Amino acid sequence: MDVLIQDSKFAFRLLCKEPAYALAVVLTLALCLGANAAIFAVVQAVLIRPLPFPDADRLVYAYDTFPGAGVERAGASVPNYFDHRAMTDVFESAALFQWSGDRVGEGPSAEGVASARVTPSFFHVLGTKPARGRFFTEQEGDVGRNHVIVLTYGFAARQPGGLDRVVGSTLRLSGVPHTVVGVLPEDFSFLDPDRQVWTPLAFTAEERSENSRWSQNHDEIARLAPGVSVERAQARLDAFDARIRERAGPLKQVIVDAGYAQKVVSLQADIVRNVRGALTLLWSAVLFMLLIAGVNLTNLALVRASGRVKELATRHALGAGAGRVARQLVTETLILTVIGGVIGILLGMWCISSLPALDLADVPRSHEVRLDGGVIAFTFGLAVVLGLIVGAVPAFHLAGANLNTALREEGRAGTAGRRARFTRQGLVVAQVALAFVLLAGAGLLLASFRQVLGINPGFQAEHVWTGRVSPLEAEYPNDAALRAYTRRAMEQIRALPGVEAAGASSFLPFGWDSSSSVVIPEGHVPTPGESIVSPNQLYVTPGYLEALRVPLKRGRLFTESDDDRATPVIILDEQLAKLFWPREDPIGKRIYQPDGPEDVAKPGPDVVYRQVVGIVGNMKLRGLIEGEGARAGAYYIPYAQSPSRNVGIAARTAGDPADITNAVQRALTSVDPQLKPFDVFSLRQRVEKSLNLRRTPMLLSLAFGVVALLLAAVGLYGVLAYQVGQRTREIGIRMALGSDGARIMRLVLHEGLVLLGVGLLTGVAGAATLRTLIASQLYGVGAFDPTVILAVVVVLALAALIACLGPARRAARVDPVVALAEQ
Fold it and tell me: Can you tell me the distance from the alpha carbon of 46 to that of 126, in angstroms, rounded to the nearest whole number?
């Protein structure tokens, strides 16, 4: 311990005499370790840390899929849920849930809250215990007995009487009285931390019947029985699916062609399925940047150690063994890396507090991101490992040669000197290779993002205000009341100054409330193996498509005359029209929506046929890149002919959409003081928000790439500058024998470019092996796009050339007389 303290004191004194070196090491490590700490905190919270529930590895998510119909994830049906509850050999319990929104309270002072409807088994599946009161009973899952409510801890604390008196009180939820029966634990959070109130789902006999097996309107979670794997549960569902197909009767071929199946996956894996690739890529990028920093510092430490040969040889001559000298070098480096780690932790804390600015706040479980002991230990562990490696490399080189011999070789290249030189050159090659891989990845993400920005969404997002209202069932109990409210609301908004067009829809672009449903053209005879399709389904008022400026390709748009007394009509997008009538004019054709499963195989006498009156352009509804959410087109039904309680409003304005927010709110409250707009964004903001998970990794990767480029350039400069200093005598001799400055300059540039070339070749090989990591994050760009690769090569070459010019010009200005005299 005394020796360690002595070494540390000596190291501090020595480093204080070399502030430039110490500052370079500390700042480089602080930047790289801080970025790593922040990204690792996100990765740990989102990808690594188990869900905050008992035996979370047994929690699974179940859903139905119809890939043949273009529906990869269709949610879960009520009959399947009850069947899963009976499969006690694989499922200990199962539950359904739905996200929703409600108003708590009465009159204009009522508060809009995010809510959830769950089966009484929900909290049992999660293994959660109430902080106050109780959770729902099975009887409260029956229609008429479900007017009870569970509150989150924070929301309950804000109620009159606080936590201790809230249980047993009554709250009006969307106009209906509900009794508070329980309070959730303070740390409870399931997927969305904003959910404040929870109510029980209640199902009618029809919803429980076999006819509802194909209505996937819920999400389902389940807890596996002890010892049961996901694979075993999936095999059980596969066997059950076979029985469903056999007893489907005339519907059997339809569901076979649609590829119907039930799927079960780990809940933790499913939650992060859309962000795992991006976060893995980000963490890989920051680790690459840390590797480059480590290589750079190792090179710097080698150069510094070579300049201290005389000092170290003197210490050795005075009795310090080779091990003591090596320990001194490692101690000096460890002190710097630990200081860099401390500052890096502080930078990481600042980065985590800036998550909303980094557009990562919408990442699943982002509210759980924190700089905990695990992140701090991991970051310090990296700092210590870097300190040991960076300090050990020069120590190894000095230990490999007699220090007295090394002292005599200070002015010329001996065996140890050549070994150190080759090591430094190899480290520069590694820096260039790592920088190439990092820059190539950032370049590919940038090129991909540009491709995404070039996607035509099918609407004009500029100057469009959007928001939602949800008419209360207690105030608007039927279709007539919903139609009347929506008509009055649209009249008020269209009358506002600056509003050019306005309309309502059951689904706003890039929103969370999408819906799809099967439609079948009249008289259509499917070919063998052809599946039915389930396109996006929207109920819209006149003015909605006009507000979004969706192009009309044929026919007409909806008018006020398309009301509940008029002929049922429908508008299709081009994709759906071409699918149904590839070589015919769709205008005037008829389509029907099955009322039940039996209508799919053969339409019954009560199905409603809708006449096609218009064809509009294809519109991106779930994102610019829709992925698993893609559907086989879309169709639009007049809102007046099928009212929805979810009213999304779009208003095209002459100026900034934000300028009309207050006016729209006044217009809506003039119709109903209880209904205030929520989820208010401009349509451009919705588009931008949908790009966050692509934009943020791209921007961070570019930032990491720039840092890597600078570090690689600095490393190349340092090696060449050191070599020029070591070869001053050689250069003097060359110039004395007739070489001019230009030739010497070309010699140094050649050495630098050779290192660059070897590094680039190594980097290309490395990028080729890692292309599968980035391929899933790309759109419209290959994982080895030649344009991007060429651009990266050019950027690295320019940076290397600039880095080489300084040492080359210095070499060209060597005075041979002075150089020879100094030797």
Answer: 18
**What residue spans of 354-414 are helical by DSSP H?**
373-399, 403-408
DSSP assignment of 162-225 equals -HHHHTT-EEEETTEEEEEEEE--TT---S-TTEEEEEE----HHHHSGGGTT---BEEEEEEP
Q: 412 pLDDT band (50/70/90 cuts)?
A: very low
Tokens (6 digits) for 691? 């790009």
DSSP label at 476?
-
pLDDT recorded at residue 16? 64
Mean per-residue pLDDT over the chain, rounded: 82
Confidence band (pLDDT; 50, 70, 90) for 307?
low
Spatial distance between the Cα atoms of 626 and 619, rounded to a whole number of angstroms = 11
Average pLDDT over residues 612-628: 85
Rounded Cα–Cα distance for residues 339 and 345 (Å): 10
Span 91-117, average pLDDT: 84
Cα–Cα distances (Å) from 313 to 88, 317, 394, in that order, read 76, 6, 14
List the one residue out of 167, 140, 141 whose CA is nearest residue 153.
Answer: 167
pLDDT of residue 425 exceeding 80, the answer is no
Q: What is the pLDDT of residues 153-186, one digit of tens each?
A: 999 998 887 888 889 998 888 878 999 999 999 9
When computed from its CA atoms, the radius of gyration of the chain, rounded to whole angstroms, is: 34
In terms of Cα–Cα distance, which of 548, 553, 586, 549 is closest to 569?
Answer: 586
Q: Give the percent of the chain with pLDDT over 90.
A: 29
Report the alpha-carbon distance of residue 254 to residue 258 in Å, rounded.
6
Cα–Cα distances in angstroms (integers) from residue 108 to residues 111, 112, 194, 662, in the given order: 8, 11, 22, 16
3-state helix, strand, coil in the chain (%, to 5): 55, 15, 30
Using alpha carbons only, what angle is made at residue 376 by residues 375 and 379, rounded to the nearest 5 degrees? 85
Q: Is 733 exposed, middle or buried (0-12, 13-18, 19+ CB in 10 A)?
A: middle
Q: Which residues contact 704 (CB under 8 A, 6 or more apart)?
A: 35, 285, 286, 288, 289, 438, 442
Name 557's Cβ contacts closer than 8 Å, sequence gap at least 6. Answer: 542, 545, 546, 571, 614, 616
Q: With H, G, I as helix, E, B as strand and everything else as coil, classify residue 308.
A: coil
* Residue 781: strand, helix, or coil: coil
For residue 509, give the 3-state DSSP assignment.
coil
> Mean pLDDT, to the nearest integer, of 492-510?
92
Q: Is the pLDDT of residue 134 over 80?
A: yes
Annotated domain spans of the chain: 1-57+276-411, 67-259, 435-456+691-823, 471-674
Task: Confirm if 140 and 146 have CB atoms less than 8 A apart.
Answer: yes
> Tokens 């999400």 map to which residue?
219
Average pLDDT over every residue of 537-563: 94
Pick the more confident residue, 631 or 818. 631
- Measured N-to-C along each axis, helices 2-16 and 322-353 cross at an angle, to the nearest 10 degrees, of 70
Cα separation, 171 vs 97, whole angstroms: 21
CB 550 within 8 A of CB 650: no
Q: Could you give the 3-state DSSP secondary structure of residue 112?
A: strand
Average the pLDDT over 397-419 and give the result: 52
pLDDT one-digit tens code per residue, 437-455: 888 888 888 888 888 888 8
Residue 323: pLDDT over 70? no
